[in-house]
Design goal:
Pfam families: Peptidase_M15_4. Keywords: Signal. This protein is an alpha+beta fold and about 220 residues long. A hairpin with a 5-residue loop joins strand 3 and strand 4. The structure holds zinc ion. The site of zinc ion has 5 residues, from strand 7.
Length: about 220
């Protein structure tokens, strides 16, 4: 009984590492954890991806640390801010992506790009939270509450009529891998593929399944 209590306490203490972010956190796997927003992260995102608003508070968000494999096969550390309701899903999904060496060019906060969706997309950066409106609309995006994530946006562009975003993703606007002239044609997200199935399993929908426009980079819950 005593041994169990001690080991349980030890387990509990190893699942929290305040020394890393100064905030309580949950470790999913080595290198994969999610944390409350620390003062350091708060000052990094305030006035950039985050501002005072009636829709989402910092308490609703989590800072997620992950590992991933890039297109050259290098292991990298990544970071995301998502809604606390999907923090566990995101840690689990990115662990599976990592295990399968699913290539991601970069996974970093959009604040590294001045909260510019365009610049982040051009850099092929995978990112989630940004308090902003839907592209071409006055309604709030699901990114504004951290419930959406954009994966390798350059090779999975947003396509509406003749508009392709980012502009440097034009080669990937058509989704036939054999016809695609882009360098990363084989990494385009396709209905039914590994990443699609993984997000679906966690209850997300895919922007590539939409009818009015196609947002191939976008998964939301
Ligand atoms: Zn999106």
């Amino acid at each position: 009984m005593t041994i169990c209590l001690v080991s349980c306490l030890l387990m509990a203490s190893t699942s929290v590492f305040p020394q890393i972010s100064n905030t309580p956190g949950t470790v999913y796997k080595d290198g994969f954890s999610y944390h409350e927003i620390s003062p350091a992260i708060e000052s990094r995102i305030t006035g950039s991806s985050y501002r005072e608003n009636p829709d989402i508070s910092l308490d609703d968000l989590r800072y997620v640390k992950i590992k991933y494999v890039d297109f050259e096969g290098n292991e990298k550390s990544g970071e995301l801010i998502v809604n606390r309701r999907i923090a566990k899903d995101i840690a689990e999904i990115f662990y599976e992506l990592y295990k399968h060496e699913y290539p991601l060019e970069e996974v970093s906060l959009i604040d590294n790009y001045g909260a510019s969706d365009e610049k982040s997309m051009e850099a092929n950066n995978t990112t989630s939270f940004n308090y902003r409106k839907i592209t071409g609309s006055s309604s709030l995006s699901r990114h504004a509450c951290g419930m959406a994530i954009d994966i390798n946006p350059q090779i999975n562009p947003y396509v509406k009529g003749n508009t392709v975003l980012p502009a440097n993703g034009k080669a990937y606007a058509q989704r036939d891998e054999k016809k695609c002239t882009g360098k990363y044609a084989s990494a385009m997200i396709q209905r039914g593929d590994f990443i699609y199935t993984l997000f679906k399993k966690h209850g997300f929908s895919w922007g590539g399944d939409w009818n009015s426009l196609k947002d191939y980079q976008h998964f939301e819950k």
